[in-house]
Design goal:
Length: 255
Amino acid sequence: MPEPIYDFTDTVVLVTGAGRGIGFAIARDFARFGATIFLNDIDSARASRAAGELIKLGYDAFAAPGDVAHPDDVAWIFKHIDEKAGRIDVLVNNAGVEPVSSILDHSLEDWQRTLEVNLTAAFLCTQQAGRRMKAQGRGSIINIASIAGKSQPLYLRSAYAASKAGLVGFTKEAAREFAAYGVRVNAVCPGVIVTPMTEHLRNNPEQMARWRAEIPLGRLGQPEEVSGLCLWLASDAASYVTGAAWHVDGGKNMA
């Protein structure tokens, strides 16, 4: 099947949590189609390495390190974008954490940190991007949620599920408000994707067998299969699409 062709020339994109995994795949694929990319990661060295990889490929990329759960860091990131690019056209809120713990044993610190990174960070970045996009009269915001935030809870991941459900709700409300500004807001809800975050579970044969039995397509997803949907959502091909939460899960969740 021919690869879809997009043109993101003169498009400025920020991807949070872009140092590896799904975030890096999204940043790389936007860059492949001409976008100027800002790669955020809480680990400054990882952000620099990721941006460096894209620069070596001839792409227009900048590191934008910082903790997107902290307002001061977010303000600096957007000031950096203003200085380097002068605009922002696409925001992908991808940064996330996934602690594993029983509700009975979950520490308040881990609970709060999960909500901060998975939900509050998206609010902070959306607020900064939304102000700029409103002035431009155009933009696309994509929140990387999870099937855990809809009707597919994950065992021992209460904080993660709660934060992702909140992110889906926030997506819909932001889409409703931002429609008047010409800004579209959507969520992408991955299932099990081959990333560093799932590596420890993928090393468990019993877990892999369960996943394959539960997923109609019979396999795990690749980061590029998430980024492909993000490219479409940010493109003019999806100009009438907003407020939706899209599954990328091999059919695991058909609700």
